[in-house]
From TrEMBL, chains A, B:
It comes from uncultured Desulfobacterium sp. It comes from the Bacteria. InterPro entries: Corrinoid_activation_enz (IPR052911), Raco-like_middle (IPR041414), Raco-like_middle_sf (IPR042259), RACo_C (IPR027980), RACo_linker (IPR040506). It holds the Pfam family RACo_C_ter. This is Iron-sulfur cluster-binding family protein. Residues 6-90 form the RACo linker region domain. Signal peptide: none annotated. Residues 94-254 form the RACo-like middle region domain.
Length: 523, 523
């Protein structure tokens, strides 16, 4: 997705070096002979072979009569040996890019000779069985053996999925010679077996911001043991490699125009900038936007409500679910849709409170909590009514207010009003499903023309893939990291004032949302 | 022993970097914070920390309130972390240099803060129990498990001796943070667990000529696991790191004048050159010069004859032994002395044959082999007579002829006569004990003034020590390696002619040895 069209220069590749067999006139050692051939072939002075690789080289060279295919990777101008293959094999070399989400992990298999994706597979992060949220996992990691357990759960599952994916395409793990991994800072720490303890405690520091390229065997990833593993760097505890992958994937760091990048999740993460400068900011938005708290909230999946339309005249609910099944719950994007529709149809007011004479008999009290029946038991996939409670709405409003306040704060900080921003990139799979119109209606994002919002899909996976196949993309992630000024969000009086003003639908200042017009229904 | 007097710049050192503790205003990760402090302290841009070291860094930093002593080593302009220590410790950092001889291994403990030797210990190479000579060990290595057994024998013994040596001085293995190892090519391969199989088979190639700096844990050396281990490079199967250490230690590569470096052993290894150029040559001399074949021959040790004087008039033998004990055998230098004295006293002729009317009743036949009694049973530490046989003398003559021929060949090749050489450095512990006068008398080395011959002692250990403590000495060994032109000794007709002429005492061409004058005794 980068804008330039120069051919991609790989940093993981194979060559067929010319290596003359040894003779009495040229008794250079086998390893030095191989290095000499590689240097000549790559026109480089810097080639490194790990000590553990040396032992087998004479055997492989002599067995293949000194004609070998050599897989190498480059880092800091040094080419390092990954493996030697027989030159007759028709086989390609492959790589794996991984989006390390706290909820969902996606593994993509890539042909490194062509740069093309072969296949991909996504699965729930197995650490969910320890704790659905990051904080629970951080606490668990502090227990005796907890960190190792969390790491092993993840690594073993990733290994299993890689093997299945490779096996499906007749690819041996040994021919997978590279990996790139993007995730948030905590997930990355857990993947690496590094203690995340201080990430969530003042002064909120990770163990490490940027790592050198690792090798698969160091992480117990069972692809080629000498395969390089690029782990995306982070900027801090609350701004991880997934976001850097997002910036890379958006191409915003190549543009003259200033763009926003928004990642909506438990944390609202926002980047603003262009090819000159970048500022980033992140703040807690709560799990409501991800459907994490609502009584009927759940992660996207079959039967989950992802789209709601309410006829403002008849107040009839038109409910769409994933796979068209009977509804069993609602995901974050469905919830944003639902609340926007409730507001537009006058069923909730600008404070998000249920309007009795619009809600009518859909309104009920369960356990002394006011609830709105969204799906009646007879239409429900669970056999029970699916309800939205007043606290659910309150939580969503706090979350959307946090997002809008963070956007306002960063816009104020750089003195660039929303109207001067041509593009708001929306990162993450979740971003793909949000209807920007609904998000505008509830006042979560600025009231800009819909085409201003560009959903990018899984930018973490896309960025990881780009960095795996391209030398310049890989180098760029470290440039992006060093270029970003991270703004620590001071929850001061000004922030609280902005936040309070944003806790209305769409906002106390209606002039900020001119497109959101609500018919006055009798109350 | 290098000629320049500039202060030694170490490549293994400690620093006390300034590291500010993290705060909300500076939440750089611990590892990156440490790297930042090191970069500032060393004024460098390149600092590397291994992945395996990262895990413990936050704990050590916080426990020490971010005041730590950091041990690092430099290679290729990159400073790499060895370990973190508490800053209050009075303790120094230490290193170990090793001379990896096929017969004797010497371990020296060095204070890396001062560069001074603390202590050293030498012991028989435990691989001797597998085979006294290199070839037997190479064959043994080809057996199932043989290579590992040879490696383990050596490494375990080295570990044991290092621990004893360190313990004696109250030094913990963890504070030993560097190692340098010099040995011949086969010994180095066996130490590294690399198959020496092809070293002794055409076209005689090692597995590797030069290695990057390794780490102690890779070699199962139980000093600080992250300690760098510098393994001396080789030029080929027959020109090893011990010789490169010898050249370094001699300082000949800094001089304008052309010098010779001679290492006498089973192989005669010879280097000629100056600060501009270097040529090297090695050839089999047989084990005679090391006392390896003579019936009474043995390695230097208590009771071993190392000096012999025969009164040419009375033919009385004046025999000196190591430690002044009753004689039990003779070492190489003693053998050279003995044969020179036998020749000067007319007891052997210029072909090395016993002269009956000078040897008289010392001459006897044992097992149909002519022998000369050197020590009578009553004067012997073994209770038996110590005898020198005709084949012993013949073997020594072949060995000394090989050495002289190699010297002549290389001198002819570069067209520099012996008379233009101001210094002949004699390397090796053995070289220290050879009486150059005796060696001239038997025609093993050119007839030059005695002060021309400079014994250097254990140049392998000395060179390893220099390279361990000094950055420039370390870099120089690779420059020396790349500078040397290795001359493959063609055993052609010309060589054979020179060799035949040298198989006399001192030589067929008496003009070459004007100082060796023998009184004509009646025969």
């Amino acid at each position: 997705m980068t804008s330039d069209n120069t051919p991609i220069k790989p940093w993981i590749r194979t060559i067929l070096p010319e290596i003359s067999p040894p003779s009495l006139k040229d008794n250079t050692a086998d390893v030095d002979r191989l290095i000499r051939g590689i240097k000549k072939s790559l026109k480089t002075e810097k080639v490194e072979i790990a000590f553990s690789q040396i032992r087998e080289i004479p055997r492989i060279l002599t067995q293949n009569k000194y004609h070998v295919k050599v897989a190498l990777y480059e880092t800091d101008g040094v080419w390092r040996l990954i493996d030697l293959f027989s030159p007759d094999t028709e086989h390609h070399i492959y790589g794996v890019s991984i989006d390390l989400g706290s909820s969902t992990v996606v593994v993509r298999l890539i042909n490194l000779d062509s740069g093309a994706a072969v296949d991909e597979f996504s699965f729930h992060n197995p650490q969910i069985q320890i704790g659905p949220d990051i904080l629970t996992r951080i606490h668990y990691a502090a227990r005796e053996g907890g960190l190792k357990e969390l790491k092993d759960l993840l690594v073993e599952r990733i290994n299993k999925e890689i093997i299945q994916l490779a096996g499906k395409h007749g690819i041996t793990p040994n021919s997978i010679v590279g990996m790139a991994v993007a995730g948030n800072t905590t997930m990355t720490h857990l993947f690496l077996g590094l203690d995340p303890y201080r990430i969530c405690r003042e002064p909120y520091i990770p163990v490490v911001n940027r790592l050198d390229i690792l090798k698969a065997f160091q992480l117990e990833i069972i692809i080629n043991p000498q395969a390089p593993v690029l782990v995306f760097p982070n900027i801090g505890s609350y701004f991880g490699g997934d976001l850097i992958a997002g910036i890379l994937s958006s191409g915003m760091s190549h543009k003259n125009q200033v763009s926003f990048l928004i990642d909506v999740g438990t944390n609202a993460e926002v980047v603003i900038g262009n090819n000159d400068w970048m500022m980033a900011c992140a703040g807690a938005a709560g799990p409501a936007l991800e459907g994490g708290v609502a009584g009927m909230g759940m992660m996207a999946g079959p039967g989950v409500i992802d789209k709601v339309v309410i006829d403002p005249e008849t107040l009839a609910f038109d409910i769409r679910t994933i796979g068209g099944l009977l509804p069993i719950g609602i995901c974050g994007s469905g919830l944003i849709d639902l609340v926007a529709q409730l507001f537009l149809s006058g069923m909730i007011d600008l404070r998000g409170k249920f309007v009795r004479n619009r809600c009518m008999d859909r309104l009920t009290d369960i356990d002394e909590i006011r609830q709105l029946v969204i799906v009646y038991p007879e239409d429900s996939g669970t056999g029970r009514a699916l309800c939205l409670s007043q606290p659910d709405i309150d939580a969503l409003i706090r979350s959307k207010a946090a997002m809008y306040t963070i956007l306002t704060t960063i816009s104020n900080t750089v003195s660039i009003p929303f109207t001067e921003i041509e593009t708001f990139y929306v990162a993450g799979t979740f971003g793909t499903y949000i209807d920007p119109r609904s998000a505008i209606v509830i006042g979560m994002i600025p009231d800009r023309p819909l085409e201003t919002y560009v959903p990018l899909g899984n930018t973490s996976l896309e960025g990881a893939t780009m960095a795996l196949v391209s030398c310049s993309a890989r180098d760029e992630i470290f440039q992006i990291r060093d270029k970003i000024t991270y703004i620590e969000l001071n929850v001061n009086q000004e922030f609280m004032n902005l936040f309070s003003a944003a806790k209305f639908i769409p906002h106390t200042d209606k002039a900020l949302f001119p497109s959101v017009r609500v018919k006055e229904y009798g109350r």
